[in-house]
Tagaturonate/fructuronate epimerase (Ktedonobacter robiniae), 479 residues
Amino acid sequence: MLYNLNLPIIDTSVVTLDNTTYALVTTAIPGEKLLAVLGHTNGFVGELQHSDRVMLCARTPENARALRARLPWLQPSVLGLQTSAGFGDRLGIATPGHVQSVRDTGVAPIFAQQSVRENTRTGRTPQQVLDDAMWGAFEAGWREPWGADADHLKALADIEPFIAAGYTFYTIDPGDYVDDDAEEDDTATLRQKASALPWSDLRSSLNETQQRYHRQFDIEDLPLAFDEYTLLKAVVKYGAAVAHMARMTRRIQELAGQRPFEMEISVDETRTTTALLEHFYIVSELKRLSVPFVSLAPRFVGRFEKGVDYIGDLAELEQNIAGHASIMRYFHNAYKLSLHTGSDKFEVYPITMRHTQGLVHLKTAGTSYLEALRLIASIDSSFFREIVEFACSRYDTDRKTYHVSATLAKLPVITSLTDEQLPDLLNQFDARQVLHVTFGSVLDTFGSRLDHLLNEHQADYQVFIKRHFDKHLVAFRSR
Ligand SMILES: [Zn+2]
């Protein structure tokens, strides 16, 4: 029926349900697509065409909502303990490529995922991020469950707009309440700090906590026992963070009402490593305070930096991950181990899968943006050179809130590279990090030009994304 009208339909999007057909159609403007509704059009806002048989609707938040109401699989949902992967998309056009990558892998996807920090830098709202992901899932014909991650929520005030937009996965980052100095404090200082913790929020006391933890725990072959010092260190380092996580949880529960959601606890963006004993302490405290969570992102040994493989001793990391996995088993495998800053950590994936038996959430964010830049490098070399030079000028400022170690001096001199060598710059450690952390500034300055080019080369962008994510997902797939 819809095909008889001779509209430029995107085939993968076409779906018929309850006597109504929905599809995306392209327009003369690259990237501008319209929703075509043939049948029951009530609830949609658009223009009736072809003797009023079809309504063409702009991709507005209102029409997104109406479409979600009609096609329930376009609403994000909870994913539970399935092996899962988050695909951050800073530009809002990468989801069709993500769908192609994740399809038939058995990995449960999170297509909408943006932190408050990223939203600030890209100028997008939680609703826009979710709607963009939804339109992408619709366009590519994704019909299975997918999640929406309100990433790195730090303050109570961060929560509300994500609830309003219908997010299903809430990543709580209590980093502002983690006391990294505890690593250096002596026992007397720790004692003093411990007595000043918000014990009423923790519904406990230092005394009671000491009684609870001063014993040997049988965790497979790990000799895990707290002594006064290690317990005080764990309590001081994470006690206030645990209290904050409980506060954040209550707020989410309050605002979400009956709507199902899941939570992740992330302490990955702290200065110090999360010791196994501290993982144990955090989880038992959260259980005691009835904080439900589906995954935990500790800070592992070594360095997980943006956009590059693991930096550190891989054997040491493996032992570390094995230890975290033992603790997870002690808690009956009730949550997943989450790999934050997870893009491009190709050596880490098989290790994590092996030790957790698939209880893993992989979180990637900037890598899809870097693939966009790789595409730009191959189709418009002078524009790419402009972006690189600008990114270099912004690096010292923009790197401040990220874990990166690239130095500008190690970047190849861009004027000495031929056009053919440019895409390869995206394989160079320092260049990747410089381009990774400057995305906000680059989008501010070049956003519309970048969008325009990518929209003109959408099929290529999807190919680039799929090629890059195939390398990620091969370690996680169950099909
Ligand atoms: Zn993180």
